[in-house]
Write a structure and sequence with these properties.
Layout lengths: L5 H6 L3 E2 L2 H45 L4 H6 L7 E4 H4 L2 E3 L6 E2 L9 E3 L14 E4 L16 E4 L1 E2 L7 E3 L7 E2 L4 E5 L5 H9 L1 H10 L8 E2 L2 H6 L1 E4 L2 H44 L14 E2 L1
Parallel strand pairs: 5-10
Antiparallel strand pairs: 1-14, 2-13, 3-11, 4-6, 5-6, 7-9, 7-11, 8-12
Helix pairs in contact: 2-8, 5-6
């Protein structure tokens, strides 16, 4: 282990300004670092606001409020219909439950998808594990771009998490806990909106079995029973377009938030460095110059 002994510590040189300047520096630091802390606290509240914003958009999308003025402009009075997931999807596909190495597969290897790959709103095939040498999987269960994936087992907050695969970087296959819903491509964005919305989440959580302390499970039979509101194809397309635009706005805000947080985290060490260089407050000509001790 790295060691700092008393001899080295006692020999360290530190700048020592006059007492009056020390007080001005301390007062200035208290003011500036207090502002940094306040800024950090405000930024910490934004992720929760963005989460509520996205949920509000999804709730408005699935209730018809997002396109109310679109209805009026197009003189549409038809009420939405309703279907079950079972009526929308042509089949539900699952993979294997076999022993694996707990690391993502290389390009020459095959892997099974983990539930964490679909848990956070975007497919991530880094969240996968490698099949042992000699293990076989059906090629038809390989995950491809455009697939609609949903987790059938997870905590109550994450069971039923779903994504549409936009990119794959390695050969990863379905597992027994991540299902593929097969349906026409034009229906996938709408079903994704419904299942991620408060309307969909309420049904998923009510259908999931298991107790509060265990993993919840969403059976294929219960998944098929989930009710899905069905606007006309034209309105469905308009809703998807608006949701994607609003989510893109939230993504841009989230990116700027992350960059701002990095800047804020650099403010404290930069301010302290400026203070110890004697650049934070003006020096009084009548005072003794700072020295090294």
């Amino acid at each position: 282990m790295v060691n700092l002994n008393q001899g080295i510590l006692r020999g360290l040189m530190i700048p020592l300004p006059p007492l009056a300047e020390q007080k001005r520096i301390a007062d200035k630091l208290e003011l500036l670092l207090g502002r940094v802390d306040a800024c950090r606290a405000r930024l910490a509240r934004l992720p929760a606001l963005l989460k509520r914003f996205r949920q509000s958009v999804l709730a408005a999308a699935t209730s018809g409020k997002l396109t109310e003025e679109w209805h009026k402009r197009h003189h549409i009075k038809d009420r939405w219909g309703e279907e079950t997931v079972g009526a929308i999807v042509s089949r539900v596909e699952a993979g294997l439950n076999v022993r694996c190495n707990e690391r993502p597969p290389a390009q020459h290897e095959k892997g099974l998808v983990k539930i964490s790959a679909v848990s956070w709103g975007r497919y991530n095939d880094e969240e996968s594990k490698t099949l042992l040498s000699g293990a076989e999987v059906a090629e038809r269960t390989k995950i491809e771009v455009g697939d609609f994936l949903i987790s059938r087992a997870n905590t109550i907050e994450l069971v039923g998490a779903c994504v549409i695969v936009h990119e794959t970087t390695r050969p990863v296959y379905l597992s027994d806990k991540v299902l593929r819903l097969v349906m026409p491509n034009e229906l996938k964005p709408w079903l994704l909106i419904v299942l991620q919305s408060p309307l969909g989440r309420k049904q998923i959580e009510s259908f999931a079995s298991g107790n509060q302390l265990s993993m919840r499970n969403l059976s294929q039979a219960n998944l098929r029973q989930i009710c899905v509101p069905c606007p006309s194809p034209e309105e469905r397309e308009e809703i998807v377009r608006r949701v994607e635009a609003l989510f893109a706005l939230a993504d841009r805000i989230e990116y700027r938030l992350a960059e701002t947080r990095k800047t804020v985290e650099r403010l404290t060490p930069a301010t302290l460095a400026k203070a110890f260089r004697g650049e934070l407050v003006p020096q009084e000509p009548s005072e003794e110059p700072a020295g090294l001790y």
